[in-house]
Structures are given as C-alpha cells and as structure tokens.
What does this fold into?
Amino acid sequence: MICGVNRQPVPGTTIFDGEQAQRGYALNKMTFSFNDAVNRQAFLADEDAYCAKFGLDPEQREAVRKRDVLALIAAGGNVYYLAKLAGIFGLDMQDIGAQQTGVTKAEFQARLQDAAG
It folds into this structure.
C-alpha cells in the first residue's frame, strides 16, 4: 500500500516507485546529463566508459548496449529521462511502443492506422 492507496499492478508494467527510483538513480542521473550536448557526444564516443562514469550496474549497462528501453525501465529508469537516451539511439515513440507491445515497428504502425480508422 502506497500513501494509503492499494495499487494493483498492471500486468507487464513496472511501477516507478521509491524503490525503483533508488535502483535507477545512477541510470537516471546519466540520462539527465544528456541535457548537455557535450555529454551526448561523450556518450556516443565511448558508451561503456560513459556508463561506468555514472556507476551503472551490469543489468543497466547491458540494457543500454541492447537499446532495450523496457529493460532500462525494469532496471529503474524513469521513462521521462529515458526519452533522452532513446533519442540518442535514434528511437522514436513508435519504436518504444513496438517494444512495449512485443511487435515490430511496422506492425505497431499498422495497429495505429487500424485504430485511427
């Protein structure tokens, strides 16, 4: 129970709570650093060294290497900060939506078009 509210988890989602925030502190601190273009360039020049600089754990570093946004969320990443990392990776919201639903980007786009009528 959080703040007197009994939250029911949604299957397949990660709830970003205090525990997840603590778990993802280093990851979120790193992604926040991407507000500065110099830091984005440093990351692109040597991703592993940049991740090490911020103390990412092996799970977080593997998720970065795989460009796996869902694994980054599970590893404590805040979706708002991760959007900066996704942008560096060249991913857009449809790429992330495809990851979340377990389909290809083309299949996800087709679903969006079908839903639009």
Q: What stands out?
A: Residues 105-116 form the longest helix (12 residues).
